[in-house]
Design brief:
With 215 residues, the chain is of the alpha/beta class. It is built from 6 helices and 9 strands. The protein has a single domain (3-203), classed as Vaccinia Virus protein VP39 (Rossmann fold), CATH 3.40.50.150. The chain binds S-adenosyl-L-homocysteine.
């Protein structure tokens, strides 16, 4: 399809621009395979490959491509990983994770807004991702019935690391999470003998609303 070719070229240009970030090549290869234009509202498709967030309805946004790239890079995703994402939104970030963990891995992504549960499910199905499960609920509680997880990716800003997420992370596991209300910092949390928390970048995310989030 002619349109598909045009988006492919735009996607390649997006990848070329992201090279400056210095993320692992596997991350860029995964992003090259995900059709981001299938995860934005139809009227915004022509902007799908710009490096900025876009509105997806209900006051929420699909994160900018460089943010998705950096978070996936910090997480060090491996084939076969079992991953929990908080904030399905458009489903795009979950699709990139699915590419990185391969057919033997699986992604559970929790979303609190029913409209976006439906939206992300539809987008993921249209783009062909079968190993991503979208679950309606408060992600600050994690997903105990599917725990433990190798990796946890929080895509909304929390007041602090929700204790259930620490509990549901495997020993040796990693989590990325933006923390703060106005000034937000992205943290990489590693569960070893204890909990190691390292600050990375200043970021801007919509708030995590829930039991261990903002109210
Ligand atoms: N990862 C998304 C970006 C999501 S924006 C993407 O790739 O498009 C953050 C999302 O987190 C929003 O959809 C918001 O509704 C959701 N959210 C906020 N608080 C939440 C909570 N407690 N549990 C689950 N989802 C939450």
């Amino acid at each position: 399809m002619v349109e598909d070719e045009r988006y492919k070229e735009e996607r390649q240009r997006m990848i070329d621009r992201l090279r400056g970030l210095g993320v692992r090549k596997e991350v860029l290869e995964a992003m090259k395979r995900v059709k981001r234009h299938l995860f934005v509202p139809p009227e915004l498709r022509d902007q799908a490959y710009g490096d900025y967030p876009l509105p997806i309805g209900d006051g929420q946004t699909i994160s900018a491509p460089h943010m998705v790239a950096m978070m996936c890079d910090y997480l060090d995703l491996e084939k076969g990983d079992r991953v929990l994402e908080i904030g399905a939104g458009s489903g795009y970030h979950a699709a990139v994770i699915a590419e990185l963990i391969g057919k033997n891995g699986c992604v559970y992504t929790v979303e609190r807004l029913p409209s976006l549960v439906e939206y992300s499910r539809r987008n993921l199905r249209a783009a062909g991702y079968m190993n991503v499960m979208v679950v309606l609920g408060d992600g600050s509680l994690g997903l105990p019935e599917h725990a433990p997880f190798d990796r946890i990716c929080v895509t909304c800003a929390a007041p602090d690391v929700p204790p259930p997420l620490i509990e549901q992370l495997k020993t040796g596991g990693k989590m990325v999470i933006p923390i703060g209300r106005y000034i937000q910092v992205l943290y990489l949390v590693e569960k070893k003998n204890g909990i190691e928390k390292r600050s990375k970048n200043e970021v801007v995310f919509v708030p995590l609303i829930g039991r261990f989030g903002f109210r």
